[in-house]
Design a protein that fits this description.
Radius of gyration of chain B: 19 Å
Largest sheet of chain A: 7 strands, antiparallel
Oligomer: heterodimer
Number of strands of chain A: 20
CATH topology of the largest domain in chain B: PH-domain like
Strand order of the largest sheet of chain B: 1-2-3
Low-confidence stretches of chain A: 147-184, 341-345
Number of domains of chain B: 2
Mean pLDDT of chain B: 88
Strand content of chain B: 15-25%
Helix content of chain A: 40-55%
CATH architecture of the largest domain in chain B: Roll
Strand content of chain A: 15-25%
Shape of chain A: globular
Shape of chain B: elongated
Largest interface: A-B, 37 and 27 residues
């Protein structure tokens, strides 16, 4: 059995000692007086806490062992409650390696193994040496390509010299039987890399919706900067540069509007800067390579992330384009496996190509999961009426709220300007309708939706899990239904399952039956293929 | 298509009435401690919720249907948003029968079907007679086995 890197023990013991001491100090101030303990105890509590904290961290380090033997990863951990976990290598979906700034200086990496079950990461090694991380990753990768008993030795020899052989895409047959003719190192082929110019373009184009929220939340921290900017704005529109409610009344409504617009523009600019900075940090030096049957990516400026995505375990391929990217013919490729638990993960999860010309993205998508030209069928036009009705309701509510605010508080009398929102309703409904669609191709189901951020999801039939057909009361009135095709992929948790919105009722039933049928025929097809190749 | 045991209506209606009672209790607490409210309003609120729950239970029972079709378990449910769900037998990971304390008193059981899917990964058929629930579980297990275990994920 192996242990984690000793330097990581040092870091943990240090942290444990500090935490223990801190807890001791708190405990002293809170309890010693109250419990009436003798005075000489007081100076001893903090050191005892430190000793206990550090000791526990050390014990945890010594209790934590792991090893890959044959075809299982074994992890033993826990000081009081002991845990021993065995994970079959064939069940591991992703291996992720991350390095924080501190770990990069020490040459350490955190390795996380994800399987399909469970709500959290199944095994996290925090932290091992970089070389060891690479060794573990290779062992898991190798499992699919060679007999298990040779895997370990082969991986070790491979560390010295890389030898290249043709390895084909379909690794599933090998995963199942564990047998393959030739054994050699996988060839590494670079599929995509970001140069700085493309990265900056990407950062500018892919605005994060979270950035304004982030800026808003952090405003109280930069209160000085905020007040300076506000004062400057006031000076620009000709007010007294002082922050008090009285100043606002001195300037009339027209200049107040200018002030508001100016501040809003600055706010959005600030959000854009934050968004760009975050994207630059996240995707700096992005590289995607193919290593045998796996995709492997690396990215990050401060924290480095790298991870493997086994091609044979891909559940869904998504292509995302926001308005700006679509205009210039670019797209993002996202590949999903069943590995992640969703929720707390960062946005970069599963991104295979952040931004590339659409053809390149589709080529790689087809390489991962072969599919023909997708002929999308749109929802019936009565769906468009439904969207129009829905947007009209939103516009009406906004206008009503605006009217209430204006008559009660502002008294400008300009609330009717909000009625202009109704002009936007027809084009908005049309755009939503136009950008939604479903396609039944030869081997995959594809769905598409979203105008601002269009997402095209490609789900192979043999990956389908459950098919839902939902009809809300409003849909029932118009004989429409939404067909949801669930897979085991992760992001469906976040409401991103492949969905065909507002298809005709009969078409929905037809879709459901087709999907169910194709699931069985395609599974059978794959099984016979597998037996005939092995 | 098979429907649920009629007694499940009582169970559902009782559950809403009980939750409404808890809510009424909280409101009564607010009334006592913070802000005085007319008692009639609280009672009326409870009655409205309980009646709505009973109607919902009646409708839900009328709509709920399930069937073991030749390749998938098929369910229809939902009063407001009607959903039909197809769970292909190949995708069934495991099947449970569960009986909560209230269900035991009512002499009912439920079957929970788990899939590897991420959305509605557990599909529940409530309101079954225990014997039927066991039978259904066994049958689903058989069907899942027959459809040949493949790499589920």
């Amino acid at each position: 059995m192996r242990r984690l890197h000793p330097l990581s023990a040092l870091a943990r013991v240090g942290r444990g000692t500090l935490q223990g001491a801190f807890f001791g100090v708190i405990a002293t101030t809170v309890f010693v007086g109250g419990l009436g303990l003798p005075g000489w105890v007081t100076p001893l509590v903090a050191p005892t806490g430190a000793l206990l904290g550090g000791g526990f961290a050390l014990a945890r380090y010594y209790r934590f062992t792991y090893e890959i033997v044959g075809d299982t990863l074994t992890v033993e951990s826990g000081v009081f409650a002991r845990q021993s976990r065995e994970i079959p290598l064939g069940r591991i979906q992703n291996v992720d390696i991350r390095q924080g700034v501190f770990n990069r200086l020490l040459g350490l990496s955190v390795v996380a193994f994800e399987t399909a079950g469970g709500a959290t990461t199944e095994a996290t090694l925090d932290a091992v040496a970089e070389g060891e991380a690479a060794r573990l990753r290779r062992l898991v990768q190798r499992y699919g390509e060679e007999p298990p008993e040779q895997a370990e030795s082969a991986a070790e020899t491979e560390l010295q010299g890389e030898s290249a052989t043709e390895t084909e895409l379909q690794g599933e047959s090998a995963t199942e039987t564990g047998l393959r003719g030739e054994t050699a190192g996988p060839d590494i082929e670079e599929l995509f890399a970001f140069d700085l110019r493309d990265l900056v373009t990407y950062a500018l184009v892919s605005v994060r919706p979270a950035a304004p929220v982030l800026l808003l939340v952090s405003l109280p921290l930069g209160i000085d900067v905020l007040s300076t900017i506000l004062r400057y704005n006031l000076g620009l529109v000709g007010g007294r540069p002082a922050l008090s409610p009285g100043v606002l009344e001195a300037i009339g409504p027209p200049r107040l509007v200018v002030l508001a617009l100016l501040t809003l523009a600055q706010f959005l600019l600030g959000a854009l800067v934050i968004s760009v900075a975050l994207t630059l940090v996240e995707y700096y030096d992005f590289r995607l390579v193919r290593e045998g049957d796996d995709l492997r990516y690396e990215r990050g400026l401060l924290r480095r992330y790298s991870g493997t995505i086994p091609l044979s375990k891909v559940q869904t391929v998504s292509i995302r384009e926001n308005v700006a990217m679509r205009r210039f013919g670019f797209a993002t490729l996202v590949v999903e496996t069943a590995g992640y638990s969703g929720g707390s993960q960062d946005a970069g999860q599963g991104v295979a190509i952040p931004m590339a010309p659409r053809e390149q993205v589709y080529d790689l998508a087809r390489d991962i999961e072969p599919f023909d030209e997708l002929a999308f069928e749109r929802a019936p036009t009565r769906a468009r009426r439904r969207y129009a009705a829905r947007f009209a309701i939103v516009a009406a509510v906004v206008t009503a709220v605006g009217y209430a605010v204006d008559t009660r508080l502002l008294e400008t009398g300009y609330w009717w300007l909000l009625l202009a929102l109704f002009v936007l309703v027809p084009p908005a409904a049309h755009l939503r309708w136009r950008h939604r669609g479903v396609a039944l191709a030869d081997d995959v189901l594809a769905t598409r939706s979203g105008f601002w951020r269009q997402t095209t999801r490609v789900v192979p039939y043999y990956r389908l899990q459950t098919v839902f057909v939902g009809r809300s009361p409003f849909q029932r009135r118009r004989n429409l239904a939404t067909v949801t095709a669930d897979t085991a992929s992760t992001s469906s948790l976040l409401g991103g399952a492949a969905r065909a919105y507002d298809v005709d009722d009969d078409r929905a039933a037809q879709l459901r039956d087709t999907l169910r049928e194709r699931l069985y025929t395609d599974l059978l097809q794959r099984r016979t293929d597998r037996y005939s190749t092995s | 298509m098979e429907s649920l045991h009629p007694r499940v209506r009582l169970l559902w209606a009782g559950r809403t009435a009980l939750s409404a009672l808890v809510l009424a209790g909280l409101v009564a607490l607010v009334d006592r401690l913070l802000y005085s409210l007319p008692l009639a309003l609280v009672v009326a609120g409870w009655v409205v919720l309980a009646v709505a729950g009973a109607v919902h239970a009646l409708l839900a029972h009328r709509i709920w249907r399930f069937a073991l079709e030749d390749d998938a378990l098929f369910l229809v449910r939902g009063v407001v948003t009607r959903t039909d769900t197809s769970v292909p037998y190949v995708r069934v990971q495991h099947v449970d029968t569960t009986r909560g304390p209230v269900e035991r008193v009512a002499g009912l059981a439920r079957v929970v079907v788990y899939t590897a899917g991420s959305r509605g990964a557990d599909i529940t058929i409530p309101g079954l007679r225990p014997a039927r629930a066991t039978e259904l579980r066994e049958r689903l297990r058989e069907l899942a086995g027959e459809s040949e275990a493949t790499d589920a994920v």
